[in-house]
Specification:
Elements: H1 6-9, H2 24-45, H3 47-66, H4 70-100, H5 106-134
Helix pairs in contact: 2-3, 3-4, 4-5
């Protein structure tokens, strides 16, 4: 255990350099700030995420116009949001894998490929939902 960082040895005490945990409304405000930082980071670094944001902005009014009721509108818009969520998770996986190192490893490749597959299935879901709702 002596090779582990002190915060691990002590059962999860605060890691060095990490700000103390907030409570109550301050925690919610901080969490919102971290969320917006993540969105900004993904938008700045991921072309796929930027494209999905553009698709969302362009197709949300289309969904509001073509959806015949609230459920259809929610499905059409929700599946676009889901695709962006999947892309954010894929970006997080890629960042963690890249943080580990640049050396090739089969598990790193597998993690990135599985994340990419999730995005692909999200795109299939978008096409399926839009096709079934609007046709």
């Amino acid at each position: 255990m002596k090779d582990l960082p002190e915060h691990v040895q002590t059962g999860g005490a605060q890691a060095p350099g990490v700000p103390p945990k907030r409570r109550g409304i301050a925690r919610l405000i901080a969490a919102a700030g971290y969320s917006f930082a993540g969105l900004r980071s993904a938008f700045a670094s991921e072309e796929a995420f930027r494209l999905e944001v553009v698709v969302f902005v362009l197709f949300t009014p289309v969904a509001l116009y073509l959806g015949e009721n609230g459920v259809e509108r929610a499905l059409l818009i929700g599946v676009l949001l889901l695709l962006m969520i999947i892309e954010l998770l894929n970006t997080a996986v890629e960042a963690v894998v890249d943080r580990i190192g640049n050396d090739y490893h089969e598990l790193s490749k597998q993690a990135k490929d599985v994340g990419s597959a999730a995005v692909f299935l999200g795109m299939v879901l978008v096409a399926l939902v839009w096709g079934l709702v609007l046709l």
